[in-house]
Amino acid sequence: METRYTRGVSSIAVTAALSVAILIAAIGSYIGSAAASKQARAVTEAREPAEQQTYVAIADADGNGAPDWQDELARGDIAIGTTSSATTTPSEIDPVASLGGAVMQSLVSGYLSLKEYDSYTPERGELLGKTIASNLRAPAIFTPHGADELTIDADISQERILRYRADMRVATAPMVDLNAEPEFSLFARYIATGDTSWLDALSSVATKYREAETNALTVPVPASATEVHLRAVNALGKYTETLERLVRFANDPIATGALLRTYNDDEREMFLAFDALAKYYVAHVEN
Hints:
Low-confidence stretches: 1-9, 26-58, 76-91
Number of domains: 1
Shape: elongated
Radius of gyration: 21 Å
C-alpha cells in the first residue's frame, strides 16, 4: 500500500509507538523489537541521502564499544539490540546523554522482578516499556529568545503589518517544502534500516529549520506582534533542537525513546505558534 505524507502535526500514535518500541527493545522484548521494525517500515519509501553528518558518541567508560548503560543492563542478563552511526564525535554536555542511567533502575528492577517470579512474557515486557515511556521526556536545554533580541517597530499600521508578513514569508522560506516527508518518518526509516543516510536527511531538514529561526530573529517586528513572533521563533528553535538531538543520539535507544515523546510536544507547539501568527495577520490586516 502506498504511503502518503502530509505536512502538519505528525501522528502522536506513530511517534509514541516508536518511543515505546525502542524502550522495549532496550530490555530485550522480542515483541517490542518487532513492533519497532513494523512501525518504522510503515512509513518507509526511497529517498535520496543527504550530506554526511557526524553523531555523538555515547559514554563508554571501559571502551568495549557498548554504552555504559548497556553494560549495566547486560550485567542483569538483559539482551540489548544496538544501532550504530557511521561516525561519532564528542559533543557538548547534554543531559539526555545520561538519561539511560536515570531510567535504568526502573528497567532493570521491573525486568528482574518479572524474571524472579518466573512471570516474564513479551506482553508484560511491552507493558513495562509502555509504563516507563508514558512519562519519559528528554530534559530541555533550549534557551528561549527574549524581546531584547528583536528589532521592535512602534508602527502598527496595516501597511507595516503587511510588510512584516511579507518579511516573515521570506524568513521562513527555507522550511517551506510541501513535497518533503514529515521529519518523524525520516527517523523511522533509520530505525527500520539502520542506514545513517536517513539521519543525514533529517539533519539537512533540521538545518533548514535552524536557518528559518535565525532569519526570523532579524525581521523587524511591529510592536503588536511581539508576543506571537517570539512564540513562533522559540517554537521553531525548540523543535529544531529536538531534531538535532534525535540525530546526535540516534545510537542510544533510551535517549531516542525520550526524544520522540518530546518531539510530539515540540512539533505541536510549533504548529500552534504559527497558527497564532496567522490569526494575528487576519485580525490586523484582513479585517
